[in-house]
Amino acid sequence: MILITGATGQVGGAALNALVAASAEVRVLVRRSSGFTGSEGVEVMQGSFDDDKSLARALEGVYVMLLAGRDSPDSVSQHQRVLAHARRAGVRHIVKLSAIGASPESPIALMREHHQIDEEIRESPGDWTLLKPHLYMQNLLRAADAVRREGRLSAPMGRDRFPLVDASDVGAAAAVILVNPTAHAAKEYKLTGPVTYNYEQVASALAAVAGHAIAYEPVAPEDFEARLLAMGIPTWRAFDLAHIASAYSAAENAISPDLPMLLGRKPRSLYEFIADNQNAFSS
Ligand SMILES: NC(=O)c1ccc[n+]([C@@H]2O[C@H](COP(=O)([O-])OP(=O)(O)OC[C@H]3O[C@@H](n4cnc5c(N)ncnc54)[C@H](OP(=O)(O)O)[C@@H]3O)[C@@H](O)[C@H]2O)c1
Fold this sequence. Notes:
By secondary structure, this protein is α/β, with parallel strands linked by helices. It contains twelve helices and nine strands. NADP nicotinamide-adenine-dinucleotide phosphate (NAP) binds next to helix 1. NADP nicotinamide-adenine-dinucleotide phosphate binds next to helix 1.
């Protein structure tokens, strides 16, 4: 049995869709089963990373799983709890959603947390694969209101170029690995989009699809952090979001061949992503 965690999320949801399309038998662990639209071949189990009983139940009979959660100060302990249950249940292969930039020295907490869990997985007796995506194109949706209403893309991303990746491609790549995990044992894949863009170019791409002018307004990370705090975003989240550009070295902002290799096609472009979300970006 294949288990998908984070199945209501961007990556887990895309992995599930790809597995359903491939007629694979899948189990999902979801916190709210009521709002979850299960499909044929999908076994829905209600539970949480914080609930031992639900984890023991969900992991029974599982041989490979996608471990995908949400960043939070609890993420390390949550991942450790899931991994302990997976070991006990005899899960043979863990496919873990990590990130390019995961490092013990990163200024960004979520990158240090990913590194800690990645290390524990690398040192564990079972098989594993680490998925390391770059920034998701979907992050741009957080700026969609200002883009649509004010023609302004405010972001703390400086002038560097980033190989933004569509989270749906990350999920599709996870599905490829989940159906044939042995071929991907002990592999770490850097998942990037096909082109690097600075945020000036992202604004131009948004303008081209939205049909109105959009200006990039670079914001100093400290100022962006203050704005997020004023909006009530928790301190830990505000810092990571505002300073995320500092998580990447120049080498980590390069395009990787891993995603097209896994998918057997070109990854989705920024223009395709924006066109699919045209309503969010244009009035
Ligand atoms: N954003 C980026 O640019 C980026 C880039 C690289 C890597 N990443 C990594 O990608 C991951 C996020 O992926 P995503 O965007 O697919 O996430 P997402 O859309 O926010 O979804 C998170 C999923 O985790 C589930 N979840 C959260 N807390 C849980 C808990 N306590 N127990 C069980 N399930 C729980 C959520 O369930 P509910 O629906 O119940 O909340 C949801 O299904 C993070 O680890 C992040 O560091 C992000």
